[in-house]
């Protein structure tokens, strides 16, 4: 890796849009200078369009990309998340390490071309197909690490603790046999993975799968063990995704899931509450004020019929759409410093990967709010009336926090992760920076008007294409073909 510089006519900084911006980064891929109102100097590359901070994808089950689009048929009188889950279990039971790596490699290349520069991998397929550990207990996790390194995407690896099939300690189902780990086994796995994660700059955290899959004592012990290893590690959990989950939690504990978690776990800014779709008003207030990130996956939540997160209620804690969405920057101003979220933080993830596109996740999130309220431009704020700008900034800030990495935007001491919009693309041509981002989110359809992507200062996408795209696609198609031939 080497140091580098880039000049842009328009750049989206943490405080808003700025003109004539020069970015410099060091050999470690970290921004050392962000100069607003700079002159375009000979020898400094000029971006083909507006610069955006790269988007962290805060929730991914990579293997599920292999079954995307293959569950869209009616299997029961009333299909739901739970019937989809049965099909997913069948797919997961056939997956080999080589197939997982091929699918993840293809997915991560696609993510980079779609505006994501980092991913949080919620990894719960741990064991061999018979449910027994591999000779190397970390084999499947290492496959994900290799796939991310090969694609060039930043990674937060979140091994998943999964022990029971329901609230109250119900025994695991047969279809879950590849997921199950004791708390001690999980802590040993984290220890084993740490050197490999450190070697490629990946962040290691923990994901208690859900309250239904991790009994209270196991949750307590796992969190204590994680804190002893790394007190700053990110913690992600599925929570309140489905109404049945809420009902079952109330029947078990007398409390709704988010309320129970807040009363029994040290939820703070390290935590990502994935989905958190079904909360009452008090849960919204209490959860937002912890500083935890709401991990929203709008296209997957729509695909599974989960329901709609109430974004305005969540962000009202701050009175803003996230702490990063501020006013624009005038020429000559110093680049704004990053501010830490004080509550109501959120980010986006592609989850089951029925859709892999950062802009489309934002579009789906905003459109869901419009439909439920019968209003327009719901995610805009007084400080930032441009909806796409406000959402992009908030999602980058929340995604960086959830990833546990310095990915918070185009600012000094943050990693040089960025994407360049293609100003010559017909959807964007002739517009200014904010208008181009708005068109990218709300008018591009399934086109991707992205020119380049950089991860830690290294160009991973050029002219909209990853250099390993063809190879990645071949590997993905072959892995999926093998799985379907095996009856998945």
UniProtKB/TrEMBL annotation:
Q: Which GO terms describe its molecular function?
A: deaminase activity; metal ion binding
Keyword Protease on entry: no
Its required cofactor(s), as named, are: Zn(2+)
**Boundaries of each Amidohydrolase-related domain copy?**
51-458
A GO term from the CC aspect: cytosol
Annotated InterPro entries: Amidohydro-rel, HutF, HutF-like_N, Metal-dep_hydrolase_composite, Metal_Hydrolase, Metallo-dep_hydrolases
Q: Which residues form the Formimidoylglutamate deiminase N-terminal domain?
A: 6-43
Per UniProt, the keywords (alphabetical) are: Hydrolase, Metal-binding, Zinc
Name the SUPFAM superfamilies for this protein.
Composite domain of metallo-dependent hydrolases, Metallo-dependent hydrolases
NCBIfam families annotated for this entry?
A: hutF, PRK09229.1-5
- What name does UniProt use for this protein? Formimidoylglutamate deiminase
Q: What is the lineage of its organism?
A: Bacteria, Pseudomonadati, Pseudomonadota, Betaproteobacteria, Burkholderiales
């Amino acid at each position: 890796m080497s140091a580098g510089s880039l000049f842009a006519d328009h750049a989206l900084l943490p405080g808003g849009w700025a003109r004539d911006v020069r970015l410099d980064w060091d050999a470690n891929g970290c921004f050392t200078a962000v100069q607003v109102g700079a002159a375009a100097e000979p020898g400094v590359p000029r971006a083909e369009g507006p610069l955006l901070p790269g988007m962290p994808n805060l929730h991914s089950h990579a293997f599920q990309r292999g079954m995307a689009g293959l569950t869209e048929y009616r299997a029961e009188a009333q299909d739901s998340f739970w019937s989809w889950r049965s099909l997913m279990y069948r797919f997961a039971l056939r997956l080999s390490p080589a197939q997982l790596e091929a699918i993840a490699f293809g997915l991560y290349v696609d993510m980079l071309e779609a505006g994501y520069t980092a991913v949080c991998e919620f990894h719960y397929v741990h064991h061999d197909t018979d449910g027994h550990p591999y000779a190397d207990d970390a084999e499947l996790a290492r496959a994900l690490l290799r796939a991310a390194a090969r694609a060039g995407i930043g990674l937060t690896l979140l091994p998943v603790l999964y022990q029971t099939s329901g609230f109250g300690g119900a025994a695991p189902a047969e279809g879950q046999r590849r997921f199950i780990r004791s708390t001690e086994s999980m802590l040993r796995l984290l220890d084993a993975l740490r050197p490999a994660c450190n070697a490629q700059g990946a962040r290691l955290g923990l994901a208690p799968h859900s309250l239904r899959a991790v009994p209270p004592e196991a949750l307590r012990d796992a969190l204590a063990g994680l804190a002893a290893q790394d007190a700053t590690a990110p913690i992600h959990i599925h929570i309140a995704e489905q109404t049945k989950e809420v009902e079952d939690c109330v029947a078990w504990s007398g409390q709704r899931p988010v309320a129970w978690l807040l009363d029994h776990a040290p939820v703070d800014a390290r935590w990502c509450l994935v989905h958190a779709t079904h909360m009452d008003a008090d849960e919204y207030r209490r959860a937002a004020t912890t500083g935890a990130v709401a991990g929203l996956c709008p296209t997957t939540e729509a695909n599974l019929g989960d329901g709609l997160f109430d974004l305005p209620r969540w962000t009202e804690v701050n009175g803003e759409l996230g702490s990063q969405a501020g006013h624009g920057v005038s020429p000559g101003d110093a680049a704004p410093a990053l501010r830490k979220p004080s509550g109501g933080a959120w980010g986006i993830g592609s989850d089951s990967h029925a859709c892999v596109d950062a802009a489309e996740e934002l579009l789906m999130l905003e459109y869901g709010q419009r439909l439920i309220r019968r209003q327009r431009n719901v995610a805009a704020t007084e400080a930032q009336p441009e909806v796409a700008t406000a959402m992009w900034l908030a999602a980058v800030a929340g995604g960086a926090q959830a990833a546990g990495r310095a990915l918070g935007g185009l600012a000094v001491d943050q990693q040089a992760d960025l994407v360049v919009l293609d100003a010559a693309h017909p959807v964007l041509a002739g517009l200014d920076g904010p208008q181009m981002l708005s068109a990218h989110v709300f008018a591009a359809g399934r086109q991707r008007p992205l020119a380049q992507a950089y991860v830690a200062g290294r160009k991973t996408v050029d002219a909209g294409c990853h250099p390993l795209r063809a190879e990645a696609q071949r590997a993905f198609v072959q892995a999926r073909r093998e799985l379907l031939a095996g009856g998945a």
